[in-house]
Design goal:
Layout (H helix, E strand, L loop, with lengths): L18 H11 L1 H11 L12 H11 L3 H13 L3 E4 L2 E4 L1 H5 L4 H13 L1 H4 L8 H21 L3 E2 H18 L22 H7 L1 H22 L3 E4 L2 E4 L1 H18 L10 H8 L4 H13 L3 H12 L4 H14 L4 H6 L7 H11 L13 H18 L2 H6 L9 H11 L4 H11 L3 H16 L3
Antiparallel strand pairs: 1-2, 3-5, 4-5
Helix pairs in contact: 1-2, 1-6, 2-4, 3-4, 8-9, 8-11, 8-12, 9-11, 12-14, 13-14, 13-16, 14-16, 15-16, 16-18, 16-19, 19-21, 19-22, 21-23, 22-23
Length: about 450
């Protein structure tokens, strides 16, 4: 047993409403999205895919007595908050919609998913390069932190100054020279005496200030659109929901700084290996700490890159970490369903995300997928586990007998099949069964029947 320091559960800032009140406010923000989600879930046939088809938009506007613009905005929010899920051209109710009226935690998670997607809710101004928009999005957490720590309204000039500083830091980290709103290098025919640095020195700073002001206005409007802040004449103030959400994220960073096993600075692969021998609770703490120190998109991409590797143990652990990510990882997890090596893991992840009991989630796998997963798990045990555990792993196979298992294992085509069967034959105490497993391994190795 290892003695672990425990950190007392943090308390929200004084004046933060109770969770029930926060959930009530979140329900109010998403009221139109919930109505549209119920309508879409109850509408048979195609036509509710994203973007919302014109005829479906008209039907929804008539049925719900909303304008087409309100329907379109509510539909986008419903998808981003996990209230609806798209399966081809058909919309189905998400698990959050089913739990909406009774589960405050589900409501708050749905609103936080919308909050995290504020830059998708409110379209960026036209004519601005994507890189400049991305820099502004990356700088917004500092703006939100200032608003939260100020515990009141903050003037727009102060926010603009902070945004400009953070963008400059990001550009410096990337060794970039700001070239103004267009961010285009000088043409080849330009006078050689005027270099890019000369242009940046003469025109870049003023133009960059104008660009930052435009992007700050866009960010504040986007955050206001999701209910995270209110805008006054020349100032902005976090709403109770926004204040609570930013506090939660700041607390996650504090947890990350106190990562018990010291994995916060590690790569995803090293972090997962460091968690391999932890029990589930402490492992999840490590996952949360590691995730809190990174943007969701980069963390999910890194975990999936590890899952595509050759180490089956890391593949399984990567999806355990993705379970801690939750809703924000759903599009990326769904996108890997076409990859055979990740499909069984992704199907189980999605089944649990959609509210299925983990004990019943295996039902979503076909027999072939379940067999592939059995081999992959056996490979993880063979590489990192104990001999007895590999023998006991036989009991988890969906096949009723060892001969049936061997037949299907040979057919499934897992790249580690031979190694798994050889390891199992070496570990099993029954000589007759071990001989049959060795024969199967030889047949797979030689391509025989």
């Amino acid at each position: 047993m290892t003695t672990r320091r425990t950190r007392p559960a943090p308390r929200p800032p004084e004046g933060t409403p109770p969770r029930a009140e926060l959930a009530r406010q979140a329900r109010a923000v998403l009221a139109d999205a919930v109505r549209i989600a119920h309508w879409a879930a109850g509408t048979p046939g195609p036509g509710t895919a994203a973007p919302l088809a014109a005829h479906a938009l008209e039907r929804a506007a008539t049925a719900l007595e909303l304008s087409p613009a309100q329907v379109r905005a509510g539909w986008d929010r419903a998808r981003l908050a996990g209230l609806v899920e798209l399966h081809g051209d058909t919309a189905r109710p998400g698990w959050r919609l089913r739990a909406w009226d009774r589960d405050d935690s589900a409501v708050l998670r749905g609103w936080v998913a919308l909050f995290d997607a504020w830059s998708l809710v409110h379209a960026a101004p036209e004519g601005i390069e994507a890189g400049a928009v991305a820099e502004a999005v990356e700088a917004v957490p500092q703006v939100l932190s200032l608003l939260q720590l100020s515990a009141g309204s903050v003037t727009v000039p102060a926010l603009l100054d902070l945004l400009g500083q953070r963008v400059a830091e990001l550009q410096e980290e990337r060794c970039e020279v700001p070239l103004g709103p267009g961010r285009t290098a000088p043409a080849a025919s330009a006078a050689p005496a005027e270099t890019a640095a000369d242009q940046a020195a003469s025109a870049g700073p003023a133009r960059s200030a104008d660009l930052n002001a435009l992007l700050l206005d866009w960010a504040l409007e986007g955050l206001a659109a999701v209910g995270a802040l209110t805008l006054g004449q020349g100032h902005a103030t976090l709403t109770p929901l926004g204040n609570w959400a930013v506090w939660v994220k700041l607390e996650q960073i504090c947890v990350a700084a106190q990562s018990p096993a010291g994995n916060i600075e590690q790569s995803a692969a090293d972090m997962l290996l460091g968690c391999a021998r932890l029990t589930p609770g402490p492992a999840r703490d490590e996952y949360r700490a590691w995730l809190a120190a990174r943007t969701v998109g980069s963390a999910v991409a890194e975990l999936l890159a590890v899952a595509r590797g050759e180490d089956a143990l890391l593949r399984g652990l990567a999806f355990e970490a993705l379970r801690v990510v939750g809703g924000p990882a759903e599009p990326e997890v769904r996108a890997v369903l076409a990859e055979p090596s990740l499909r069984p893991y992704a199907l189980l992840w999605l089944a649990e995300y959609e509210g299925n009991d983990p004990d019943d989630a295996q039902d979503v796998l076909s027999r072939e997928e379940a067999t592939w997963l059995w081999v992959d798990t056996a490979a993880a045990v063979a590489d990192h586990g104990e001999t007895g555990l590999l023998v006991r792993h036989l009991d988890s196979a969906v096949q009723g007998t060892v001969p049936a298992l061997l037949d299907e294992v040979r057919a499934v085509g897992h790249p580690r099949t031979v190694q798994v069967l050889v390891a199992l034959a070496a570990a099993h105490p029954d000589p007759a069964l071990a001989k049959a497993v060795r024969r199967a391994a030889f047949q797979v190795h030689t391509g025989g029947a």
